[in-house]
Amino acid sequence: MITNQPKHLMNIIIIGTAYPYRGGLSAFNERIANEYQNAGHDVEIYTFTHQYPNFLFPGKTQYSTEPAPEGLNIVRKVHSYNPFNWIKVGREIRRKRPDLVLIKFWLPFMSPCFGTIARIIRKNGHTRIVSILDNVIPHEHRIGDKMFVRYFIRPVDGFVAMSKSVLSELRLFTADKPAEFCPHPLYDHYGKRLERDEALQLLNLDPNCRYVLFFGFIRTYKGLDLLLEAFADQWLRQSNVKLIVAGEFYGDPAPYMQQIETLGIADKVVLCTDFIPDSEVNRYFSAADIVAQPYKTATQSGVTQIAFHFGKAMLVTNVGGLAEIVPDGKIGYVVEPDKEQIAKTLRRFFEENRMTEFETNIVEEKQKYSWSRFTQAIAKVS
Fold first, then answer.
1. Cα(129)–Cα(137) distance, rounded to whole angstroms?
2. Are 307 and 314 in contact (CB under 8 A)?
3. Rounded CA separation 57/38 (Å)
């Protein structure tokens, strides 16, 4: 139940990615919509008719193959690169006079669309507009990013940043608007944790091996190349430890394939490089002994919160906000983005057999990341 919220029930519109689009952005917006609905608020999600031009989308498809989420009012009305649509959608929402509009912001490309819609909505003199910030300055920089970000920020009333580094970046653009740091809540909608043997059988994996999981879209900044280099370490090469790479390439896979061949570690790497549907996520996390996020840059990551949900130890790099939510030596390890440190730490994890200890500590630590706590942060800035 949501506490410390306004006593009256609100009409809320969420603008952003949702079904039939797939991925973490959709998962977040749909989950927070459920949280508000469970507290009695009226919620509608305005998602995209067109999210990205095809030439800007690096994956195979933007669309989910899963059934539509039950109990959510999702309408497809936003065209991210059609200015006439922005005016139409803005006017429509302005007339509806919702109490709160939530916009999840992750990419400057969306700034003209979201910024224009927000400017039109706020003319009704009633609606409060809050943005949930994945990033302010993106991982992969482009000309004009700062100009676009500034355009988006101006009409927004308040912000919730999911890492302290993002909150600091926000303050480069606005010094006085209300803003709160609140870490990414748990992704708790991927089903239950399976028994290890069941998960391994479903994935057709050898039960005599131990597994490190790299999960999610494969992009340059996520450091898969560092993890592959780590697996060329002599101890890991000779051990029964294997790496599962589960997620779709967002870029050219050839350099990774060449790297695996050059390092001679093909027998150590299990490649599952199609998009992992929601209904199969629990298989990979249930099979893993530890989840590795060897990111070179980061703000926060939904993968960390999936690992929390399934009670899995983590290895993260000391970049962005990752170290803020993975206490070193308590539920996992924080290392520098360096192949030797990654290899040394994985060896330590398996030799010291700390999996049970870490998983016990996670039960306590995960209580910090409830969705009700996140909606309280939104209430503070709205």
1. 20
2. yes
3. 34
Q: Are 119 and 15 in contact (CB under 8 A)?
A: no
Query: At residue 158, what are phi and psi to the nearest 5 degrees?
Result: -155, 165
At 85, the amino acid letter reads N
Residue 189 neighbours by CB under 8 Å, 6+ apart: 27, 30, 31, 278
CA 210 to chain centre: 26
Cis peptide leading into residue 112 (ω within 30°) = no
How would you classify the pairing of strands 128-133 and 100-105? parallel
pLDDT digits over 144-157, tens only? 899 999 999 999 99
State the helix-helix crossing angle for 371-381 and 24-38, rounded to 10 degrees. 80
State pTM to two decimals: 0.81
Helix, strand, coil % over all residues of the chain, rounded to 5: 45, 20, 40
pLDDT the model gives residue 7: 57
Angstrom CA distances, 216 to 179, 277, 292, 303, 346, stand at 29, 11, 11, 7, 20
Higher pLDDT, 259 or 60: 259
Amino acid residing at 288: A
- Find the helix or strand (DSSP H, E) in which 341 lies: helix 339-352
Q: How open is the CA angle 99-103-107, to the nearest 5 degrees?
A: 165
What tens digit of pLDDT does each residue of 74-96 get?
Answer: 999 999 999 999 999 999 999 99
Is the pLDDT at 278 greater than 50? The verdict is yes
The residues with which 44 forms a beta bridge, in sequence order, are: 13
